[in-house]
């Protein structure tokens, strides 16, 4: 491991942040342009010399879980409702704290994960 590698990483990471910020600003300008040209949440495109700028709109739909379950129940369509049992993590932790359950009782049930991150900090002399 060398100081040069750390310095290079740090500089590139700073450049990346600057570029992402600049890209975000340009995207805002483009979205404002397309909002005025074709309307909000509408796809559009413009050609300038040899470049074509396009705005794509990705739409998704999702059922509101609580409202949908209530409506399906009202319509006697409960066979369209999933009944998925899952542990109440808060209650399990409380039961362990109260001694009603031991961590050994849940051996093999706990999923542990870790993620890695690289952070460079400049130290002051």
Summarize the SSE layout with pairings:
Elements: H1 3-38, E1 44-48, E2 51-55, H2 65-74, H3 89-97
Antiparallel strand pairs: 1-2
What does this structure look like?
- It is built from three helices and two strands.
- The longest helix has 36 residues, at 3-38.
- A hairpin with a 2-residue loop joins strand 1 (44-48) and strand 2.
- The mean pLDDT is 93.
- The two termini are 21 Å apart.
- It has 125 residues and is mostly helical.
- 1% of the residues are buried.
- A two-stranded antiparallel ribbon has the order 1-2.
- It has one domain.
- The chain is 44% helix and 8% strand.
- The chain has helices at residues 3-38, 65-74, 89-97; strands at 44-48, 51-55.
- Residues 2-36 form a coiled coil.
- Keywords: Coiled coil.
Which structural class matches the secondary elements?
mainly alpha
Gross morphology: flat
Secondary-structure element string: HEEHH
The low-confidence parts are none
Query: How many domains would you count in the coordinates?
Result: 1
Q: Taking strands numbered 1, 2, ... along the chain, how are they ordered across the largest sheet?
A: 1-2
Distance, first to last CA: 21 Å
Number of helices: 3
Say how many strands there are: 2
Radius of gyration: 26 Å
Helix content: 40-55%
> Which whole number gives the mean pLDDT?
93
Largest sheet: 2 strands, antiparallel
Q: What percent strand?
A: 5-15%
């Amino acid at each position: 491991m060398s100081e040069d590698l750390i310095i290079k990483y740090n500089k590139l990471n700073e450049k990346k942040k600057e570029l992402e910020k600049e890209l975000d600003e340009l995207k805002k300008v483009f979205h404002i342009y397309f909002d005025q040209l074709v309307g909000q949440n509408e796809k559009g495109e413009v050609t300038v010399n040899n470049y074509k700028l396009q705005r794509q709109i990705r739409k998704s739909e999702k059922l509101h879980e609580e409202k949908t379950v209530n409506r399906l129940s009202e319509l006697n369509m409960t066979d369209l409702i999933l009944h998925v049992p899952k542990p109440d993590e808060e209650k399990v932790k409380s039961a362990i704290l109260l001694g009603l359950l031991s961590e050994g009782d849940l051996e093999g049930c706990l999923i542990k994960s870790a993620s890695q991150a690289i952070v460079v900090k400049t130290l002051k002399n």
